[in-house]
Predict the 3D structure of the following.
Amino acid sequence: MQIPAERLDQIAHRFAELEARMASGTLEGEDFVAASRDYAELEPVANIAAEVRAMREEIAGLEDMLVDPEMKGMAQDELATIREQLPEKERALALALLPRDAADARPAMLEIRAGTGGDEAALFAGDLYRMYERFAAENGWKVEPVSMSASEVGGFKEIVANVAGQGVFAKLKFESGVHRVQRVPVTESGGRIHTSAATVAVLPEPDEVDVGIEDKDLKIDIYRASGAGGQHVNTTDSAVRITHLPSGIVVTQQDERSQHKNRAKAMQVLRARLYEKMRDEAQGAEAEARKAMVGSGDRSERIRTYNFPQGRVTDHRIGLTLHKLEEVLAGPGLAEVVDALVAEDEGKRLAALSE
């Protein structure tokens, strides 16, 4: 995708303006913070744009040299090399200029829930959580459980965790949907393969200023924690259920012994779900465009199958099959799937721009 020369000029001019402002010493407070952020975002784009401009100018100069019999051979060799390199550099620039999801740099709320399949689904939900934990460790991210409901046989009926680090949502956002597992459960004496499922939702975590929640919009119930799910199920009235009346979103939290801690964690989850709802509504006009991307983020969409007998993982959205089941579930192998999904999304967005 060739970027017009006028666009390269605009990038260079804007970057020079920012450099001059940053060097002037006149910026203070919020103005300095805003200019620093803009500079940091534009610098890599400006660098690639400068490389593209230099390569184009070099091509023009070498083409002029072709008329000189003595220089023609050398010029042809250099032209072939630069013409081969330029399309990749221009593609890198086009990618850098693509509109970014404002939430890409945010931490994320990871929610995993056992679906169809009973105990086996809960065990699979546990496998998925450990996969994401290990993948997070590979990326230098921090995973902190917010709430969990453990299954009596192991695994989780439901687990919610915060994942913090650089570029978390950008990499994990395509994990939302139904994950299916095909394997022989440990409880199956006949050796029959069962199919179970778990649902994954990845929500960008907002700052408090992003989502205004008024006390009058909340219905808060305090009750006694019960069941096998809580980490510290006890006999005090510490469990919290928060209902956001305008949206109907309900969040419960009972893992902590402290009512205040349960309330704080429940509000954290509520804020993330409200932020995602706001994003969905804001992107409503782009719904058709989003369908063309890699998945819609719909939690009901079956996105991936983990087949144990064949040792394979298949992502149905991009038709990718890897015979690396153990590597993927161990964490590091998931990077190949995530990178393929990101590349597919970028490719489709580039294609949409050129239409």
Notes: DSSP finds nine helices and eleven strands in the chain. The CA atoms of residues 314 and 321 lie 4 Å apart. The first strand starts at residue 108 and ends at 114. The longest helix spans residues 29-65.
